TrEMBL record:
It is found in: Cell inner membrane. The active site is at D104, D119. One of its GO terms (biological process) is proteolysis. HAMAP family: LspA. This is Lipoprotein signal peptidase. Its EC number is 3.4.23.36. The gene is lspA. It is a multi-pass membrane protein. This protein specifically catalyzes the removal of signal peptides from prolipoproteins. PROSITE patterns: SPASE_II (PS00855). Its main location: membrane. Pfam families: Peptidase_A8. It comes from the Bacteria. It comes from Pseudothermotoga lettingae (strain ATCC BAA-301 / DSM 14385 / NBRC 107922 / TMO).
Length: 153
């Protein structure tokens, strides 16, 4: 649960700072990265803007991802990735409940959308899950030792 909490705190803190102090766009790294305050009423890339079901679909998917490790043994890398995805989704849902939109502010040259800290962790978490699957990692028991199957007799 560490990563869920960490992501939510970092996301909400960054959005609070942006809303309070970011009056006009500014370059953090000239020509590559800049910060600009926007309000996203849709989901990825602003799709499905103002659709009433977006919040409920997001809530259902987040709940299922959070519950997944309860029903399926996952590797440590997968669990960390899932926590990052869930934390990012919750961070964006908090915005949707509070404001009716998500605060986005990070803009990178040649990337087609403006995003936020939660979106970044959702992406990183997805990459960690994908890496875990590609590496074929085994699951681990709750005590941290590798789960071994019993020999068949």
């Amino acid at each position: 649960m560490f990563w869920v909490t960490f992501v939510i705190l970092m996301d909400q803190l960054s959005k609070m700072i942006v809303e309070k102090y970011l009056v006009q766009p500014f370059f953090a790294i000239p020509g590559i990265l800049w910060f600009t305050y926007t309000r996203n009423t849709g989901i990825a890339f602003g799709m499905f803007s103002r659709s009433p079901w977006v919040l409920w679909i997001t809530f259902a998917v987040t709940f299922l991802l959070a519950a997944l490790p309860i029903f399926i043994r996952c590797s440590l890398l997968t669990r960390v990735g899932l926590q990052m995805v869930v934390g990012g989704a919750i961070g964006n849902m908090i915005d949707r409940f509070r404001f009716g939109y998500v605060v986005d502010f990070i803009s990178v040259r040649y990337f087609p959308a403006i995003f936020n800290i939660a979106d970044s962790f959702i992406t990183i978490g997805g990459i960690l899950i994908l890496l875990s699957l590609l590496r074929g990692e085994r699951s681990f028991a709750d005590d941290g030792r590798e789960k071994r199957s019993e020999p068949k007799t």
